[in-house]
Specification:
By secondary structure, this protein is α/β, with parallel strands linked by helices. α2 runs parallel beside α3 and α13 runs antiparallel to α16. The termini are far apart.
Length: 648
Amino acid sequence: MEGTEKKYTILAVDDENANLLMLNRILSPDYTICIAKSGAEALRLAVDYMPDIILLDIVMPGMDGFEVLRALKESETLKDVPVIIITGLDNSDNEEKGFTLGASDYITKPFKAVTVKARVKMHIKKAVKLNMIEDDLVRISSIVEGSPQLILYMSLNGKIEYINPGAVETTGYTKEEIISGGLPLFIGPEELSTIRQDYLNSLTKEGHISFELPIRRKNGEESILSVSAFAAELHNGESGVGITARDQTVLKKAQRELLEAKKRIEQALLQAEYYNRAKSDFLSRMSHEMLTPLNAILGMTNIARTTSQEEKRLYCLDQIDDASHHLIDNINDMLDMAHIDAGNFDLFDQEFSLQNLIRELSESFAQDIKEKDIHFNIYVAAGTPDMLIADVRRLRKVLSHLIKNAIEYTPRLGGISISVSQHGEYSDGIILRFEICDNGVGISEEMKERLWVVFEQADNSITRRHGGIGMGLAISRRIIEMMGGSIQVESESGKGTRFIFTIKAELQAGMPGLHLQPADQKPLLAERRILIVDDVELNSEIIAAMLEDFGPALEYAKDGEEAVARFLQNKYDFILMDLHMPGMDGFEAARRIRASGRPGCESTPIIAVSADTGDEAVQKSREAGMNDYINKPVEMESLLSVISRYLS
């Protein structure tokens, strides 16, 4: 058959061989022919072969054609197969009966080849078309029923006549609730009015519209639907509206979040660019602040080596000392910031005297204050407790930063004041309030917030006039916050600056603060026996040179094992212990000394002396039984202060 890809099957049923032969000759070139000579055989073959058309004789012995036709139409699998009646009877009653039972057509005997071919071809086409329509309907139905979108059909008067399961999922209402309640069930009155007045008019004119529609689900949640509505006309001429809607709530939320994320990314990029510029400026400042003192140290060292003038040599040593302290301060700031970023910047509380702390700070800056002829005043409010427990090492660092800043930015003959007072109490102790005031250059309003940014200074040009790498205040604020307090600044350009901060400190009952003068240390150290433990001989020599004028008896150990051996043989008043040494380190040596059982093993002060400024090293030294911690390079004032504190 021309244009036919599939060779369709025809079941021919007749009790006369001549008729079957005739039908086979006419149709076999184009179709597959199955032959049945009785009604029973016809039903069996129909089930086996599922023919596309059945040509059925009416008059047959036993089960006639009408009975076969009736059985076919009662079968769920065969009822849709077209049946063409073959009859030699020119009787309209038979035709009517056949059509009543479900026959599609009839052919009269004797057969005319043209008629048979035409009738069969027509019904094949019709069957194919119906099958295609049914397949399309099945596909469409499966899509509609399986779609997560809301799909419904309603008449122009608003009655909902069909909804899919997606509508149930979208609204939360059952199919019965939606059909009985209609659109007002989940659409508000204002939106319904808009639909009736605006959208339906547009739909009538254009045939299709799209819009967004807010709805309220059964559980009270609000959703946003993206709606497409189109005019539909049924075969009977009735008109209605088909609606598909997709829940856009998640998409809308995602779009908002994407927009917000885009804004955050843009802000982050700007911040990163700003941060990179600040970091670049910081690296430039750091290079300057590291190389400048190194240049001074190297230059003054060379001059001191070659000069024969004692006064000039002493001047060089003073300059080397100043440059070294400046370099150490910068290195310590960078190490502290590295520890803060790594999350291992912790507090280690210990007893201390507030008055001694103030005195030590005053003495450490005395030369700078004298050189600029600054009026320097310290006031401790009456009733402020002296013996406290807090991380005095961190507190000293904060005060040193703030006092150093005040000195740097205060002009000659200017004034600086420091006041300390009790600001309140909390469950375990008191709140201390510190004020550091100067009448220096001041800070503008727009620059105040930048004070606390790592790698920055309020004004980068200040670096060229006063130096610094821009981390001191950021580190100070972090320390203050860790100590349970806060810091703020009050300032105006050209009118000076006031830094105010608070910390929490526990009260320590007992002895009042010690007010040791340098002269007090000579009798205190005379004939005391001190063990210096360090694997670097130069480090031991430096400490020995600092102490020898005060009269102690000094002994040395090159590692932890030798230190333990000496302790087991001798009695020492004080031990200065390096931490990182080959073989047995300082931590293990301290643990063995404490556990040795020798007289004084628990009471002999052991002080860690190390270039490792990390909090982990400080914590490990305390856990090993050491009493305190001194950073390398060792400063004479710090060393004498610590020794005096424990030997007194």
